[in-house]
C-alpha cells in the first residue's frame, strides 16, 4: 500500500449511489475520475472528498463563529486520510450579478485601476489639453513670472455654470468679510439682498485680492496669503485676471485644464471602479445599460382603440379610475375611447403616455351648464418606469421590464464609468478601451507598453505590469484568448466560467492544495484542449493534487492515475471497476476501456441524409464578432455548427437565429443581433431551444415537475378509492401548496441553513424525514406505493410501474430513452449535472407530439456525457431527424460532428479573428478544407 503522505485514502464512501467503496488516490498527481453519467463520479469527488474538506475547514473556526454557520453534515464515509485543503472549481459558481465581469473575477481590472490611478496622464474633456496641477509655491512663481509689473485680480471660483438666485451665497460671502464678487464676467460690489436671475446659468467668483505684481518682499508675502485664501474658498482652484486685458488663467492644486479651468479630483483606484459611486456613471449606476420604454411594446397595434385594449399594460376596458381619467382626457381633446389609437391627437397621446396635471371646464350645449374636470394622471410610460425603478416586488419589476428595452447607456456608451475616468490615458488608450480588447490583443498591447512609458511612469508601473501580464498569460493558457475583460460573467458558459476560475487559481500560485474540477473541457475545441491539459499539469507541478471529473479522451490519456466508476449509472453504478495508469486501464474490459482502445465506437453512418430539399437562409449577420455572415441551413437534416471557442457560433445561433425564429413563432421579446434578412420561415412550424441552463434553481424543482409527468401522477392518485372517500383533489398531492405537504419544511423535504459567507447548506427535514408530505397524504397508496415512494422511484422503475397508464408511460419512457433511467423522479434539480439537466429538457420536448417540421437547437448536448451516453443520445436525436425534423447542434465533440449530415464551420480564430464562415457541407467535404481547425481533427476520426 502507498504511504499516506503520498496518498489520499478514502474508506467506506457511501454518498448517493456509492457502494461503500475504498479508494486510494495518489497526491501531487493529475487524477481523472471517469465513468458513465450518473455512475457516481461527482458523488466521490464533490459530495465526499470536497464536502469533507469543507467540513474540516469549518471545524477550524471558533465555536462562536460556527454557531452562525450551523453544522455541516459529515459526508457518508467512514474515514478520509491525507486530505489537503480543498478548492472545488465547479461549473455553476460564477456570479450572476450584472456588476461581475471577466475583469473583476480575475482581478485584472483591480490592477488596471491601480495602474491608471498611479501612472496615467489626465486630459481635459473640454479642450483635450493635458491637465496640470501645481503646489502653492509653483503657483506663486508662475504668477510672478507671467504678470510681472501688471495689475491683477485674484479670484476664487465658487459657482460654475449653474442655475439659481444665490442670495444666501452672497450673504455668506459678505459675512466672511469680502467686498466684491465677479458675476458672469462683471465685477460687482456686494450689497444687502443681492441676487441673480434664478433661471439662467451663472459663473460666480469671490474677489480675494487686487494687487500689482512687483519683485519685492511685500508682494511675495501678500501673494502667499491671497493664494491660501483663494484655494480655501475655491476648493483648491484659483483664477487670476489681468486688469488690462481681462484675460483669465486658472491654477489648481488638483488636476486642472489650463484653458477652461475644469478640474478632476486626484485619481484613486476607485475613481475607475464602476462599482463605486466615485467612478460609476451616474446615469446607469455603473451597469453600462439602461432600461428604456419601448412604445412599440406598449402599443403593438395602433389600429385598436383604448377600449379594446390598444394599450397592452391597461388591457381591455374596465370600470376603474385609470379608464375614468382616460375618458376625461378624451373629453378635453375631443376624441372617443373607441377611436383607433393612431387617430388620437398628438397632445392627447403625450398626456396619456407622459401624464399631466390640469383643470378644465366643458360647457354642455344641451344642458347649458359648465362642468369642471381635473386631470391628475401620471402617464402610462412614467408609471411603468417608476414601477421598474422603485418597486420592491420582483414580479412587478418583471412585468414592467416586458415594456422596456435594454440599451447601452447614452452617457457612458456602455463603458460604465464617469466621463472624467475616460480621459486618463496611457499610450493614448483609456481604461474603457482596454477592457473592450480581446485578451490576446490586450496581452500584446501590454507587452509593447514599456517602450511608450516615460521614466517616471515606468518606475511606478513595473510591478503592476508584471501582475497584469502574468494573469493575462494564464487566461491565454486555458484557451480564453477571445474573451474581453468587460464581458459580463452571467453571459459565460459553464466551461468558460470554470476555466476563468482555473486561471485565477493558477495565478494565486498556492502549493499543497487539492483542486477538484468538474469537466473543465466543456465548450473547448480540440485545438485548445492541449493548452488546458498543460495548465492542469502546471498546477500539479507546483506541488498540488489535481482531481478532474472528465470524459475527454485526451485528458484520460494524459492523466497520471485514472479511476473508472461504474459499471452502469444510478443504483447500478457506484463501484470502482478499474483504476491505475491510462495504460493499465486499457487492459480491463470496461466500457471506458473499450471506447479508448477502439473495440467499441460510435459508427460513422454509411450515407448522409438528403433532407427535404428546403432551406432556411440567414443573410448578413453582423452581431458581436460576425463579419457579415450569410449561411444556409438545409432542413430535414442533422446540422452541426463547429468552430474554435469564441469564433461566433453562439452569436450566430443563440443570439441571432434563435431569437428570429422565436419572435416569428411565439412573439418572444428578445431582440436578435443585427442581420439583413431571413428566408424560408414558411418551411418550419416551430422552434425548440434546449440549452445548458439548470432546469430549476431550488430543491422544489425536479424531473417529474419539469416534464409535467407529476401532474398526471397526482391526478391518478385522486382516482384511488381512499382519496375519493376523503375528497382529495390533485392539490393535496402537491408539495408546493398547503394541504398535503409537510409544513415544517413547506414541502421541500429539506431545511435551508444560510451560511453567511459560504453557499447555503440543505439538511433533511426532521418532521417528515425528507418525504415532503404529511402523514394523511402518505396514507393514500396506489399499487401499494405512496406519492413519496413514487418520487423516490428511479425512471427505470417508473417505466415498469406505469406501463398501463399511457399518458404517464410516454413521458417517463422518453426520459429513459435519453439515458436517464437511473435518476429518481423527485431528484432535486439542484443535484443534477449540466448534462443531465439538458437531457431532462430534451426528454420534455421529445415527449410532446412533434410535427415533422420542428427546428430543434441544442447547445453542446454532450456536456457531462460518457462515450456510451453520447451513443444513446445520438440514437434519440437521429430518430427525431428521421421523422423529418431539423436538429441543429452547436458542438465540439467529434463523435457528434462525424454523425452530422451537414457541418457549418465558423472561424478562423476566436474573438476578433473569428466570425467568418470557413467551410460547409458533409463531414467528408469539410475535411478537404486546409484552413479549418475542425477539419484537421475530424480527418483522424473519419479515417
Short descriptors:
single chain; 943 residues; alpha/beta; six-stranded mixed beta sheet; six-stranded antiparallel beta sheet; 33 helices; 34 strands; 34% helix; globular
Task: Describe the protein.
This protein has 943 residues and is α/β, with parallel strands linked by helices. The protein is 34% helix and 20% strand. A 6-stranded mixed sheet has the order 5-20-21-3-22-23, with helices on both faces. Helix 16 packs parallel to helix 17. It is globular and about 100 Å long. The protein starts with 6 loop residues before the first strand and ends with a helix. The model has no long low-confidence stretch (mean pLDDT 90).
User: How is the biggest beta sheet arranged?
Assistant: 6 strands, mixed
Beta strand %? 15-25%
Helix fraction by DSSP (H/I, runs of at least 4): 25-40%
Let me know the number of strands. Answer: 34
Average pLDDT works out at 90
Estimate the global geometry from the Cα principal axes: globular
Amino-to-carboxy terminus distance = 43 Å
What is the count of helical runs? 33
List the strand order in the largest sheet: 5-20-21-3-22-23
Determine the structural class based on helices, strands and strand pairing. alpha/beta
Question: Unreliable runs, pLDDT <50, ≥5 residues?
Answer: none
Q: Over all CA atoms, what is the radius of gyration?
A: 35 Å
